[in-house]
Write a structure and sequence with these properties.
Elements (H helix, E strand, L loop, with lengths): L1 H29 L2 H4 L1 H25 L6 H6 L6 H6 L5 H21 L6 H24 L25 H15 L1 H13 L5 H19 L1
Helix pairs in contact: 1-3, 1-7, 3-6, 6-7, 6-8, 7-9, 8-10, 9-10
């Protein structure tokens, strides 16, 4: 039941990502403040649903739910609890889900700290980030779903890759993802500037703190 909640949460996150992408971009084009106002609410909702989805996958690992294909392939009964948690992002499907969560977190941060930007510009930035989220969420749901079930669950899993059973590798991937995904923010600023016809130095100045923080995270990773 819990994995199905995670799956449904991802579908709801995709629905909100579509709202986050469409309404702000159309609203910015039309000068409609109401449509632009959807951006921050949709971004926050998307983040919450993706967080629920990741929590459900974590629950499946901690409870040795080997009916979930991803858990069966990357965990086992004797795996220490700390590595069961890190196994959540220990392979492609879980890494992609964490990537989506970090992208949603960056978007919420932009929504929270963009009050000083022109409203239409901020709406375009959040809308572009929503388009990126749509792509990743569709990829997760259609081709790399971490909640795929097994008809006959095995008694034990295949274990986590031994190379990943190291404390440093618990911290390393999230920090790298924070940096890699963080560069989506200056990308969104650049696209928003082109969409709004503001190809001056202002957008680069506005995006500089986000670029620096992404660079710092990547360097730490």
């Amino acid at each position: 039941m819990i994995p199905e909640i995670g799956q449904f949460a991802l579908i709801l996150a995709l629905s909100l990502a579509i709202c986050q992408a469409v309404f702000p971009l159309v609203g910015a084009h039309r000068g409609d403040a109401g449509m632009m106002g959807v951006a921050r609410t949709a971004a926050t909702g998307q983040f919450l649903f993706v967080a629920v989805s990741l929590a459900c996958l974590t629950w499946a690992f901690l409870n040795d739910d080997f009916s979930v294909l991803y858990v069966a392939n990357h965990s086992q009964l004797a795996l220490p609890t700390i590595y069961k948690v890190s196994a959540v992002w220990g392979a492609h499907e879980g890494s992609l889900l964490m990537w989506i969560l970090i992208l949603a977190a960056w978007t919420v941060a932009v929504a929270r700290f963009s009050s000083g930007l022109p409203e239409a510009f901020a709406a375009r930035v959040i809308g572009v980030l929503g388009l990126l989220s749509i792509g990743f969420l569709l990829f997760a749901l259609l081709t790399s779903n971490p909640f795929d079930r097994l008809a006959v669950p095995p008694a034990d899993g295949r274990d986590l890759n031994p190379l990943l059973q190291d404390f440093g590798l618990i911290i390393h991937p999230p920090m790298l993802y924070m940096g890699y995904v963080g560069f989506a923010v200056p990308f969104a600023f650049a696209i928003a500037a082109m969409l709004g016809g503001r190809l001056d130095a202002a957008w680069a100045r506005w995006s500089r703190p986000w670029t620096n923080f992404a660079w710092l995270s990547l360097t730490i990773g």
